[in-house]
Amino acid sequence: MNIARLATAAGLALWAGAAAAHPGHESASFFSGITHPLGGADHLLAMLAVGLYAARQAGRQRWALPASFVLAMLAGAGLGALGIMLPAVEAGIAASVLVLGLLIAFAARLPVAAALPLVAGFALFHGHAHHAEMGEGTLAAYAAGFALATAALHAAGYLVGRWLPQSLWAQRLQRAAGALIAGAGAVFLGA
């Protein structure tokens, strides 16, 4: 399969996934918490992108970015549980996919003081959406599930990013992946 067909297939799959990104959840459980980030292309791409982005960073950013995302995501769910509403949650999630994809596409290295609040800010939206779609049940088990799934997606993105060699073709491949992620984010935003 050539690269154009692969890109077209991936784009169509992401576009279709955007329409069904958040199916209803009848009951909140550990299992439904695990499946929620995996069932929506927007959450899936953002979380993989955090891992990919972290893999090419230096020092403590490699672990601090994914860790701050998970913690801020839990805080976002907590805000939702307290009845504190965030504005434009779905737009914030879509923007996270777009911006993280662009950071990967341009091989950007933001300073820690900029990268951590950016990633954590996006994570608040993801966590708030997880809570909003929780259904009936306990937040603790559901949150443990989506936190675990998110950490696993970060780890998958990180491992792929670290596995790729520092060769020119691998850098181009990672940048192309970032561009595809950013393109999906633009679709999610309705651009």
Automatic annotation (TrEMBL):
Q: List all membrane-crossing ranges.
A: 67-86, 92-125, 137-161
Record-linked InterPro entries: HupE_UreJ
Decide whether keyword Transmembrane helix is in the record.
yes
| Signal sequence interval, chain numbering | 1-21
Cite the entry's keywords alphabetically: Membrane, Signal, Transmembrane, Transmembrane helix
Q: Which Pfam family, just one, is annotated for this protein?
A: HupE_UreJ
**Domain of life of the source:** Bacteria
Q: What is this protein called?
A: HupE/UreJ family protein
Q: What organism is the protein native to?
A: Thauera sedimentorum
Q: What is the lineage of its organism?
A: Bacteria, Pseudomonadati, Pseudomonadota, Betaproteobacteria, Rhodocyclales
